[in-house]
Request: fold
Amino acid sequence: MNEESHIIKPSILLKFLGAKNLNLKVKNLEINSTHNDNSNFDISNIKKLKIKKGLLFDNLEILLDTHSIIFKKLTKKQSKYLEFKFKNIKNIIKALEGIKYLTNSKKYINHKLIIRWITTFKELLKSLTNFSKIKSILGIDELKILKFYNNHEKLINNCNNTFIKSELEKFKLLFDRVESHPLSLAQRKSIVTDEDSTLVVAGAGTGKTSTVVGKVSYLLKKKEIKNDEILALAYGKDAANEMKQRVKEKTGEDVEIRTFHSLGRLIEKNFEKRKNKISDAATSDYVNKNLITNILREMLKNDKTRKLVMSFISYHRYPAKYLEDFKTDTDYFEYLRKHEPETLKGERVKSFEELLLADWLYLNGVYYEYEYPYEHKTSSMQRNQYRPDFFLGESKYLEHFGIDKEGRTAPQINSHEYNQSIVWKRNLHRQKRTTLIETYSWERQDGVILKNLEKKLSNIGISIKPNDPKIIKELFEREDVNKKLVSLVSEFLQIFKEGQYTIEEISSKLPIFNKSERERYQVFIELFDEVFKRYQDYLKKRQELDFADLISKSTEILTKTNFKTNFKRIIVDEYQDISRGRYRLIKALINNQEDCRIMCVGDDWQSIYAFAGSDIRYTFDFEKV
Reply:
């Protein structure tokens, strides 16, 4: 710390009343002061400060090892400043040393260093800010600190730009030769930028992996970070092996290059001091699907869980949407074409309301034929043969009408023509003495359509036979139904565990969906919860882990134990494929070291691991890392 001279003058009025200039000369911890008398002392020898406050003036007594010094008749401003100076001079010196390091360093100054400096001198900066409001009271050193604090972003940015320019020149040969083609300027800048977290977003085929290889090579060449302090993460085993080979070829060095699951297994093994078995249900899709199938079969043996399985298969296997959910009938029919609702008997129906009715009839043992020709001839040159929605046998029919309680149709349907057709059908059945029962869209909207249908069937002599074991067995063994349900549960299980979600968390999101979607998701969540418990119990009994367990257990080890890794620089390839679980593992790795920095390379429009629960939000919200 250079010698600093500082004069605090009293106001003219106070000077008239006897106040004097306070002259301070400060060098390191030595203070030379002139007020009433000359005083020279080492700040480290101060034992205590005593202030005797008066109406206009204060006396400040400094108790030293061998004697005391009294500053008499100090103005309030002088007294307040002297007390601050004596109490904070050590911190002032340290703050200035920190500024010198931050602005003169030949290293990249990362955000954490700035935050650490600000946090360390938080109270000092607060006091200086308050003193700055008082005219001509702060000394040069204090003003330097305040100036840096108020302009630190710009100052550090300038220093880092100078550093980047220097590094680009220094390592030009490396960047020219590290890959078959010289790296671009953008790649080079991203490599030498050593921020806490750096995200490189580029399109497919623009050399993202070359940037990763370049970063590792740069760190090794620079020799500030040891080989075992570098970690590179890839998503697939092949990608990790390729990256390791390329780094070895370019640098001749070996570094830790792994997949997330391989890293998780390494951490878990080193902590537990034993090697856990990875379940075949994790490594083999065939074994996984068979395990889920067997779990679902077991659930069919229990009344409660059988109802969940059958309810989802019967009424919620499709993401059902209805005419009122769409702005135009074109959108509605496009949605139907996309999903093509098919009944449990294998018939294609025209709407999800018809699907609901057909599946309920089938599951309750009610015979029906879909759109079977009416038993009396109605066809002519102008009209096709009439085909009621459902033929129930013995001249009994069921028609479903898409109307509300007032007979209104959806806005995009011609209400007059639709109601005329209803009248024609009713009159025809009356004339031909056939039995017609009717269901309506408003009943489905009110949640009473199936309850009302059961009453209407009973009134015409048709009884139902629910939970027929033969139908349940036949239904579950249908390959198309079984395959779809098992695939859905299996894929959701992977997303659920990779994302480290909870049933409560997912259930809390249900209110944002419309009624039909909410009902479907609620049934699926209840069904999945039962499958998940049995799946976890299977792994526990067999003392096995799946890949998602490797991520969650290693994250827990890093966050809840004293286990330490060596990694000070982490490079992640294909960051756009990040899931919440892997994101948490990265966070845990970063927090495991005092100064661990990360560079991620990815493409925000390309996510090949979407099925594994990748979440593009972690690319857009990267600064939260």
